[in-house]
């Protein structure tokens, strides 16, 4: 069983450097083209289903990919919505990240909660689509930290329209690619950074 995480295409808020989170912002024209491009890349695979977060930008990206690949669009999963940034949504993203580099934003959902939701969503998808290869369209923060929990190491930021793949082997998940590139072994510095910031979530139980 192989899964592909795809971050939704660009929105006007992405373009304008606004912190988006749970705000339900639609794709723009660039975002729709990014969805078509993702489908072109996925066309060489053996994908059997497309599912998504229920937010508009993810759902429309999934609709485009499913249509381009000739696949039926599957359900949306509430567990896959983006991190809720609370009162900071709509604020400049770069300024917010510079002010709180550890991403512990006041009034926002915790990273632990985000990862727990991401893993719960994967468990539901694995149960709904046993032994099938599934495309999952959702959001940058939930993809990044869920993949990090599966890999046991930090991963880089997730770009709009990018494809990151991972597979289930027995009860173990293996991250294969991030942003379309192979996941390389971590450096000692990355592991040290991860040790101090890793969400305390055990991914081993999500296979069922």
UniProtKB/TrEMBL annotation:
SUPFAM superfamilies (alphabetical): Phosphoglycerate mutase-like
Organism superkingdom: Bacteria
InterPro entries: His_Pase_superF_clade-1, His_PPase_superfam, PGM_Phosphatase
Pfam family, one: His_Phos_1
PANTHER family the record matches: ADENOSYLCOBALAMIN_ALPHA-RIBAZOLE PHOSPHATASE, BROAD-SPECIFICITY PHOSPHATASE YOR283W-RELATED
Name of the molecule in the record: Histidine phosphatase family protein
Source organism per UniProt: Lysinimonas soli
